[in-house]
Amino acid sequence: MLRAALADGTAHHQAVFETFARRLPDGRRYGVVAGLGRVVDAIESFRFTDAHVSWLLEQGIADEATADYLRTYRFTGQVDAYREGEIYFPNSPVLTVSGTFAECVILETVVLSILNHDTAIASAAARMVSAAGGRTLVEMGSRRTAERAAVAAARAAYIAGFDATSNLEAGFTYGVPTRGTAAHAFTLAHADEPAAFASQVATLGAGTTLLVDTYDTAQGLRHAVAAAGADLGGVRLDSGDLAEGARAARALLDELGATTTKIAVTSDLDEHLIAALADAPIDVYGAGTRLVGGSGHPTAGMVYKLVAISDRPGRDAAMRPVAKKAAGKGSVGGRKVAYRSLDHAGYATRETVVVRHLPGAPEAGLGRALQVTVICDGRVVHRPTLTEIRGHHRGAKAELLPLDLALEAGTPRLVADPTAIGNLIGAPA
Fold first, then answer.
1. What is the pTM of this model?
2. 88 near 21, Cβ under 8 Å?
3. pLDDT digits (tens, 9 = 90+) for 315-343
4. Cα distances (Å, whole numbers) of residue 18 to 91, 92, 226, 426
5. What are the structural domain ranges in the chain?
6. Domain spanning 2-121+297-428: CATH superfamily
7. How is domain 180-285 classified at the architecture level of CATH?
8. Three-class SS of residue 188?
């Protein structure tokens, strides 16, 4: 596309692309935007090295004109987006990229690969946070996904309310709090369980968490308390009936005097299993496989579509709306902005999407503006901390009704209708 657009001149026409999801995964009632910070970093550093350009030439993918363009590529346009951690619904204009057709179209894959992955993780994590009811959640999925995806997944889960991750690279790179326990291999590597526990406690202190189900769980609990005393920090259960196992463990720990020792459970947990364990004496949930694995986070399904373009070069050129008309994949042309209305109790009642062909002042009375300018003239102007992002997510999630937060399959309550005609295309479903 870039090569042909450079050849016919379209490359230098002003354009607007939007990222949105036509629908949420089956049964989901809301989604959580995540990955915006990583998108910003990716756009800011998006470059083609001499090696990249040489390879593209050698493969016949690029001609000399395209190669010349790529050698000096820098994004100089504007990005407006829903804040990271924001709640979104079908057809919400989550991210808008404006600039020349060439500089915008080339970003499609990197934008979608980040947003689709991180948003899927955060949306699944938010449901687990609701199910946990305030109990501690640790992201532990690094061994169930690709190495770079694991770091991004830890960040996304933390944004949605997880308390920590077992991925140390995520702690180093993003400042996500880290927490973990020993694996069965550590116990098996010693002559017996008491020796393994004694070693761990001697090195890490009585506040450590011991994995007690390598052999016999009841005996493992006794060995754990013998090694660390009544001040043992925690024990982890990773197999069997977790509810019954936690109840038995709590009773035995209390009998042994370890009344403050916390119980952590792992083993392919998702929001439904976590909810089913609500009555068990569990303090910490470790979620991995069904958080970062494909079955736990169906794709966010976001797309990156051209919605407006000018017919000549120049920033002052008039823009015309364009839209796809294919059955089942139609869209609405023109640049859009979105607002969320709240009732007197602070709950979301409407998401209004305004088709705005030209820049203008915010529409009065439509509610909270959902987009912010993230990049302006190629310069990053919005880079909140993870703490600020988590705070925004908590506030946005608090605007949802209990119905929206239900774990049972349902349909989104707020939907922007892509087939509506007129300037306002949002309404409660």
1. 0.93
2. yes
3. 889 999 998 887 767 778 899 999 999 99
4. 10, 10, 60, 16
5. 2-121+297-428, 180-285
6. nicotinate phosphoribosyltransferase (3.20.140.10)
7. Alpha-Beta Barrel (3.20)
8. helix
